[in-house]
Amino acid sequence: MRFTLPSPPPILALLLSMLSIQGGAAFAKTLFPTLGAAGTTALRVTLAALLLSLVFRPRLRALSPAAWRAVIPYGVALGLMNLTFYLSLTRLPLGLAVTLEFVGPLVLSLALSRRLQDLVWVALAALGIVLIAPHGGAGGHLDLLGAGLALTAGAFWALYILVGGAVGRRVPGVTGVVAGMIVAATVTLPFGIAQAGATLLVPGVLLAGLAVAVLSSALPYSLEMAALRALPARVFGVLMSLEPAIAALSGLLFLHERLSALQWLAMLCVIAASAGISLSGERQVVEAEPAN
């Protein structure tokens, strides 16, 4: 028996998905003092893999070797994307980390574009990154290692999108997604065990990890599927561009992380560039959610 959620209106479903993901990321950050970033990543991804396996019951044994050749890089990209993103959160506010991570799929969209006018969006995104870059004064000082980790997560996000297309073509239904999550759990679990050890098995910690897994994976995945069935790719891409702002608001509300006016301006530049490329390109890349 398959589990299905009632389908809200598609735009509301997508907004709820983003709120769930960023709220989950904010909650995950509160677990860092107990588990560390690697431990939190491993717990979240492993529990998400178990939860999705129980809900969707994928037929993994039926997958062909060719299908696994597509699924494995997809799962590795998913696992390393989550790991590097959570590591970036140890050094950056949530809003800035998501903004920098967003550069990955944005650059991919621009690389696949064939329109000269999209150079405007390149310049706007570059301006956003320059505004975030280290400087003194009211904007504060950006942690370079944290920024590098967030950009690395963005690169893995772009790879996740590219290899996800092959998974979608070769593996039917949700089986590829669940198989990829299992591979991601296999990738992240050794890092989590090395950092958190037996703390991962404490009942209270497991319950908190389950909440993160639901908020960051199971619930938003179901909501996004409902939105994707009803929304054009361009509309989906533009709405997804709001995610850095939602992340910043989640960081403010749940973690009391404040951004400077210059950092908000930088974020708006990246959001505008992402929305612009979603609307203008002949070839659209729908920004698949990484479940951060």
UniProtKB/TrEMBL annotation:
<dbReference type="InterPro" id="IPR051258">
    <property type="entry name" value="Diverse_Substrate_Transporter"/>
</dbReference>
<keyword id="KW-0472">Membrane</keyword>
<dbReference type="Pfam" id="PF00892">
    <property type="entry name" value="EamA"/>
</dbReference>
<dbReference type="InterPro" id="IPR000620">
    <property type="entry name" value="EamA_dom"/>
</dbReference>
<feature type="transmembrane region" description="Helical">
    <location>
        <begin position="119"/>
        <end position="138"/>
    </location>
</feature>
<protein>
    <recommendedName>
        <fullName>EamA domain-containing protein</fullName>
    </recommendedName>
</protein>
<keyword id="KW-0812">Transmembrane</keyword>
<feature type="transmembrane region" description="Helical">
    <location>
        <begin position="68"/>
        <end position="88"/>
    </location>
</feature>
<feature type="transmembrane region" description="Helical">
    <location>
        <begin position="144"/>
        <end position="167"/>
    </location>
</feature>
<dbReference type="InterPro" id="IPR037185">
    <property type="entry name" value="EmrE-like"/>
</dbReference>
<feature type="domain" description="EamA">
    <location>
        <begin position="145"/>
        <end position="278"/>
    </location>
</feature>
<keyword id="KW-1003">Cell membrane</keyword>
<feature type="transmembrane region" description="Helical">
    <location>
        <begin position="200"/>
        <end position="223"/>
    </location>
</feature>
<feature type="transmembrane region" description="Helical">
    <location>
        <begin position="235"/>
        <end position="255"/>
    </location>
</feature>
<keyword id="KW-1133">Transmembrane helix</keyword>
<dbReference type="GO" id="GO:0005886">
    <property type="term" value="C:plasma membrane"/>
</dbReference>
<feature type="transmembrane region" description="Helical">
    <location>
        <begin position="38"/>
        <end position="56"/>
    </location>
</feature>
<feature type="transmembrane region" description="Helical">
    <location>
        <begin position="261"/>
        <end position="279"/>
    </location>
</feature>
<feature type="transmembrane region" description="Helical">
    <location>
        <begin position="174"/>
        <end position="194"/>
    </location>
</feature>
<feature type="transmembrane region" description="Helical">
    <location>
        <begin position="94"/>
        <end position="112"/>
    </location>
</feature>
